[in-house]
């Protein structure tokens, strides 16, 4: 029997706990792989009662999860207790939220779990408590870096075979200009190319790279980053043999007839890449972290505080995230 997938509980005031309970309820109909939640069993029990769900919750180790999963939701108890208050953020939740991510990663490195699906966190609530990472993506890279290495994590949003990656991730727009370099673009393309081959079994991934400015700079009249940074990076990549097109005007690159030519489109900043994926199917998008030695996926939505505790949040993106993590961890890396 394969080891379970880990699910980190995410922000307790958000919809993460609702969705974990909802998908567990649907485990048979949806043929879900075995998973265990890293979190607070009492909180999940209280949320289940609030939602009127009749299900059992059992404290477990990851190793016991497969035998428990049929009859009870397996929860690895992290020892932090938080009050069930849907929609109301509390700084007291931060240790639970952060520990759930950290201990899930530890369990994967220990061979007890095979991959991680993260429920959404409320970033601002964690920053107030000293969490020093912009999001999961960067925190996971730090947790996975061993022996002083630094890893470049890649955030890829996917809706079926439509994939988009921002080269710069969680930063103010004005910081993007000083962060973009040919080396960063080259590193992103190399990692995306390699991970599409090894994790997605695409033999020769086709990659498109967008510009930064309107109309990809319109020959330098609307910005020079395409000429000074992006085109030289692509030239170096072509010399190395990578099939990359660009710089493509970002407004048309995501039109379906162009996007479908590529296994991934690499864009220059967060919203350039994420808006198209969330716009074509918010309910089905999945966030996948590349560039790490572990598999991590997540639904594409956030904590949706106003829906927490109502039972109205859609589980579809979470189900997709679980399915992709399951698929990515079925076979050994090639
Ligand atoms: N993976 C993550 O941890 C992650 C991802 C995105 C956003 N966030 C965080 O979530 C918080 C809130 O962000 P936001 O308001 O921009 O985005 P959001 O995704 O929480 O909400 C955007 C809109 O979509 C709705 N929505 C979200 N998920 C839904 C679902 N499953 N079913 C039905 N409707 C749903 C919400 O009600 C809201 O109208 C922020 O702190 C942000 O950083 C976390
Ligand atoms: N940028 C992501 C999004 O908007 O969907 C989200 O903030 C999640 O980021 P992390 O996976 O790094 O937490």
Automatic annotation (TrEMBL):
<comment type="pathway">
    <text>Cofactor biosynthesis; pyridoxine 5'-phosphate biosynthesis; pyridoxine 5'-phosphate from D-erythrose 4-phosphate: step 4/5.</text>
</comment>
<keyword id="KW-0862">Zinc</keyword>
<keyword id="KW-0479">Metal-binding</keyword>
<feature type="binding site">
    <location>
        <position position="170"/>
    </location>
    <ligand>
        <name>a divalent metal cation</name>
    </ligand>
</feature>
<keyword id="KW-0521">NADP</keyword>
<feature type="binding site">
    <location>
        <position position="137"/>
    </location>
    <ligand>
        <name>substrate</name>
    </ligand>
</feature>
<feature type="binding site">
    <location>
        <position position="296"/>
    </location>
    <ligand>
        <name>substrate</name>
    </ligand>
</feature>
<keyword id="KW-0963">Cytoplasm</keyword>
<feature type="binding site">
    <location>
        <position position="136"/>
    </location>
    <ligand>
        <name>substrate</name>
    </ligand>
</feature>
<feature type="binding site">
    <location>
        <position position="270"/>
    </location>
    <ligand>
        <name>a divalent metal cation</name>
    </ligand>
</feature>
<keyword id="KW-0560">Oxidoreductase</keyword>
<dbReference type="Pfam" id="PF04166">
    <property type="entry name" value="PdxA"/>
</dbReference>
<comment type="function">
    <text>Catalyzes the NAD(P)-dependent oxidation of 4-(phosphooxy)-L-threonine (HTP) into 2-amino-3-oxo-4-(phosphooxy)butyric acid which spontaneously decarboxylates to form 3-amino-2-oxopropyl phosphate (AHAP).</text>
</comment>
<keyword id="KW-0460">Magnesium</keyword>
<feature type="binding site">
    <location>
        <position position="215"/>
    </location>
    <ligand>
        <name>a divalent metal cation</name>
    </ligand>
</feature>
<keyword id="KW-0520">NAD</keyword>
<dbReference type="InterPro" id="IPR037510">
    <property type="entry name" value="PdxA"/>
</dbReference>
<keyword id="KW-0170">Cobalt</keyword>
<feature type="binding site">
    <location>
        <position position="287"/>
    </location>
    <ligand>
        <name>substrate</name>
    </ligand>
</feature>
<feature type="binding site">
    <location>
        <position position="278"/>
    </location>
    <ligand>
        <name>substrate</name>
    </ligand>
</feature>
<comment type="similarity">
    <text>Belongs to the PdxA family.</text>
</comment>
<comment type="subunit">
    <text>Homodimer.</text>
</comment>
<dbReference type="GO" id="GO:0050570">
    <property type="term" value="F:4-hydroxythreonine-4-phosphate dehydrogenase activity"/>
</dbReference>
<keyword id="KW-0664">Pyridoxine biosynthesis</keyword>
<protein>
    <recommendedName>
        <fullName>4-hydroxythreonine-4-phosphate dehydrogenase</fullName>
        <ecNumber>1.1.1.262</ecNumber>
    </recommendedName>
</protein>
<dbReference type="InterPro" id="IPR005255">
    <property type="entry name" value="PdxA_fam"/>
</dbReference>
């Amino acid at each position: 029997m394969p080891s379970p997938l880990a699910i980190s509980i995410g922000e307790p005031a958000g919809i993460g706990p609702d969705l974990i309970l909802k998908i567990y309820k649907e485990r048979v109909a949806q043929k879900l792989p075995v998973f265990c939640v890293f979190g607070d069993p009492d909180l999940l029990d209280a949320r289940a009662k609030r939602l009127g769900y009749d299900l059992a919750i059992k404290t477990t180790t990851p190793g016991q999860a497969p035998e428990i999963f049929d009859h009870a939701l397996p929860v690895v108890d992290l020892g932090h207790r938080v009050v069930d208050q849907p929609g109301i953020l509390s700084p007291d939740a931060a240790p639970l939220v952060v520990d759930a991510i950290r201990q899930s990663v530890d369990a994967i490195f220990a061979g007890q779990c095979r991959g991680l699906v993260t429920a959404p966190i409320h970033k601002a609530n964690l920053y107030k408590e000293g969490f020093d990472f912009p999001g999961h993506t960067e925190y996971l890279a730090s947790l996975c870096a061993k022996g002083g290495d630094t890893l470049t994590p890649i955030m890829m949003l996917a809706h079926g075979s439509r994939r988009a990656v921002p080269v710069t991730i969680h930063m103010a727009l004005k910081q993007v200009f000083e962060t973009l370099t040919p080396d960063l673009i080259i590193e992103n393309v190399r990692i995306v190319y390699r991970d599409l081959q090894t994790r997605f079994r695409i033999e020769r991934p086709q990659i498109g790279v967008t510009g930064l400015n309107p109309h990809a700079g319109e020959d330098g009249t609307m910005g020079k980053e395409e000429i000074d940074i992006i085109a030289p990076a692509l030239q170096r990549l072509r010399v190395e043999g990578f099939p990359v097109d660009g710089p493509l005007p970002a407004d048309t690159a995501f039109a379906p007839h162009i996007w479908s030519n590529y296994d991934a489109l690499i864009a220059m900043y967060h919203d350039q890449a994420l808006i198209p994926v969330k716009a074509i199917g918010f309910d089905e998008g999945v966030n996948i972290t590349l560039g790490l030695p572990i598999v991590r996926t997540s639904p594409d939505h956030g904590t949706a505080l106003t829906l927490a505790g109502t039972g109205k949040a859609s589980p579809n993106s979470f189900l997709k995230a679980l399915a992709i993590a399951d698929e990515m961890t079925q076979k050994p890396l090639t």
